What does this fold into?
Amino acid sequence: SLSTVSKALKTLEEDLVISRNDTIRLVQPEKLLDALERNFTSPPIREKVRLKVETEGDALQATLAKLSRELMLPLVATGLSSVSQYAAMQRGDVLSVYCPRLEGLLERLGGKEEDRFPNLELLETDNETFFFDARPGGNFLWASPIQVYLELMAGDKRDRETAEQVRELILKESVQVMQ
It folds into this structure.
């Protein structure tokens, strides 16, 4: 709501993270990123389905993008599946995707529910923050760099080390925007 946004902006201004005159200006991006990290909690996932589908890689991404358009259903890769878009780290062969409704997607996608060798993981959630600032790459939407950073920071030592690469990218982008 507007009152919540106003309250958040007031707190950020008091903490000297932003300045507000005619426009809102980010003054300390590092401090904002640190606060996001401290307060990050993974939103609840209603359902998790691991599938083995016939297509893989770019073809799987194209299939998902096509179904997303046809079903008018937002789909975005998780932060962990999006790492390679922003840092030098490869994740496994399983593409994990956030989706608000699995029902129609599962019917059209096909595949076999598989825990041993899946290549697709669908995570059902209504949380819109996962879809915020998703970035197109090829024929698919990838999580924002901030989502990637937050998910990596919640991981193991290797994930946190990779998160530092993403953090540098975020801070570099924020400096470019501020200029």
About this structure: The chain has six helices and nine strands. The radius of gyration is 18 Å. The mean pLDDT is 90. Residues 49 and 101 are 12 Å apart (CA to CA).
